[in-house]
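F.,

This is the one I mentioned.
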């Protein structure tokens, strides 16, 4: 009995340490680990690679025992999947569901930190009328099997949807689920509500850009400075497509009375190459989207409708999958190459200290974007200094959403060190978006060449001869 108590103590202590570790890292950043390829590195090497990054969660499309075993005792959250082909058996036979859970979950848990079981992928929008009615019964049987193993509250059951489950998404406040899927979706959402499981979606601003390939749309999709888009339903200005797509799903949930159902982004990404006739794939665009997405999530600014939190987001994908059908872009989403080197750097490495990317287009940085304020602070009065120098400051009245976009952009540029506005830095206080954005915008202006166009930020900034430095926080300044 004493041995059992001691074992229980160490188990609880281990879980506590894992929780603390996750709290200190970006637990909302995950990656999709697909295997439709014939050139992938060994699983053990892949796990070492993941451990060298800030990726905290991995989504598998199946339940490969080699991968699940290799991820044991790493603390990395694992999403495993039951294939579409398993749905009929899972739906019709509770014993099959129990065996599936025994073989794919209980055999590895808790050493392998399985957090979600996805039943099928994009089933509702597949058009398969034989499969769709069996999806919910399959999920229920998997849930019952987990409940029987006393894991119902620890491991969630969900399924993954394409954005086409929405009949309307623009503006975001008008988001609605398609009536074509009405009864099926309402039953699934009731399942999520009752079991506290997430609605998992696949938003791809890349596809939105392909359908509207204008320069302003590209900037909006890549989190680059842009004029924004005002939601005619509520007056909110959106500064990027990702937030708009996620909030459209939230609006759809709210419209049907399921506001409390959590949203998880199961897939999102941008290809770094494609066929000659494809619009949008490039290394620069992929760097900009994935890097700025990561910075946006790290900023904890959230979305306009869900501020202050970052939605769990699984980036597609860890590696290219050279056996996938379709256009060239389908085989070119990998963050890493088969030799384990980066395809392009988005600042995921734990060893990354400073941004490493070209100035144009926007490319990402490691965690350099500060968090949004949680408490009111006292404004700081700038200290007047002699004229003859210029500083780039936000224009009065610029909304926080636009300032956050400017902040994300500035801190993602090569050579821009935003550590002074991180916690403990000389310019961290006051901890407001406005103050942090002012520092970052000015730093970019001073570093980029002090040209007038370096202090434009979509007409949200202007030069001033008043030195904004205060206390121990020094704003670099240059000649007018």
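My design for it:
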């Amino acid at each position: 009995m004493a041995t059992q108590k001691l074992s229980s103590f160490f188990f609880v202590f281990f879980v506590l340490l894992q929780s603390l570790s996750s709290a200190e890292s970006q637990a909302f950043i995950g990656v999709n680990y697909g295997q439709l390829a014939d050139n992938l590195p060994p699983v053990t090497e892949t796990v070492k690679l993941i451990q060298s990054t800030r990726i905290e969660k991995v989504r598998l499309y199946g339940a490969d025992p080699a991968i699940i075993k290799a991820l044991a005792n790493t603390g990395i959250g694992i999403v495993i999947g039951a294939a579409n082909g398993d749905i009929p058996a899972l739906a019709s036979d509770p014993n099959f569901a129990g065996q599936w859970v025994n073989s794919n979950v209980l055999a590895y848990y808790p050493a392998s930190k399985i957090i979600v079981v996805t039943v099928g992928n994009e089933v509702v929008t597949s058009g398969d009328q034989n499969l769709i009615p069996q999806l919910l019964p399959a999920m229920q049987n998997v849930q019952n099997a987990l409940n029987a193993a006393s894991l119902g509250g620890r491991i969630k059951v969900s399924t993954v949807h394409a954005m086409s489950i929405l009949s309307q998404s623009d503006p975001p406040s008008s988001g609605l689920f398609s009536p074509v899927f009405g009864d099926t979706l309402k039953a699934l959402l009731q399942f999520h509500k009752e079991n506290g499981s997430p609605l998992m979606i696949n938003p791809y601003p890349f596809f939105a850009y392909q359908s509207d390939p204008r320069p302003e749309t590209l900037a909006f999709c890549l989190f680059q400075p842009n004029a924004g888009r005002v939601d005619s339903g509520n007056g909110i200005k959106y500064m990027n497509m990702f937030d708009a797509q996620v909030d459209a799903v939230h609006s759809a949930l709210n419209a049907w009375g399921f506001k409390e159902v959590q949203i998880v982004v199961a897939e999102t990404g941008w290809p770094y190459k494609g066929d000659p006739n494809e619009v949008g794939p490039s290394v620069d665009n992929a760097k900009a989207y994935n890097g700025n997405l990561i910075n946006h999530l790290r900023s904890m600014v959230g979305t306009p409708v869900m501020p202050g939190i970052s939605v769990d987001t699984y980036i597609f994908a860890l590696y290219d999958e050279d056996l996938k059908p379709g256009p060239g872009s389908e085989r070119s989403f990998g963050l890493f190459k088969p030799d384990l080197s980066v395809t392009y750097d988005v600042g995921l490495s734990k060893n990354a200290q400073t941004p490493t990317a070209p100035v144009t287009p926007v490319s990402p940085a490691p965690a350099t974007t500060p968090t949004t304020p949680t408490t009111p602070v006292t404004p700081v009065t700038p200290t007047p200094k002699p004229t003859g120098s210029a500083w780039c400051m936000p224009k009065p009245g610029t909304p926080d959403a636009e300032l956050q976009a400017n902040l994300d952009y500035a801190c993602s540029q090569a050579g821009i060190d935003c550590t002074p506005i991180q916690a403990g830095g000389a310019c961290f206080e006051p901890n407001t978006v406005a103050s942090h954005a002012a520092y970052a915008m000015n730093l970019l202006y001073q570093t980029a060449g002090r040209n007038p166009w370096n202090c434009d930020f979509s007409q949200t900034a202007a030069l001033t001869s008043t030195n904004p430095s205060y206390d121990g926080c020094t704003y670099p300044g240059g000649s007018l």
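The longest helix spans residues 2-24.

Talk soon.
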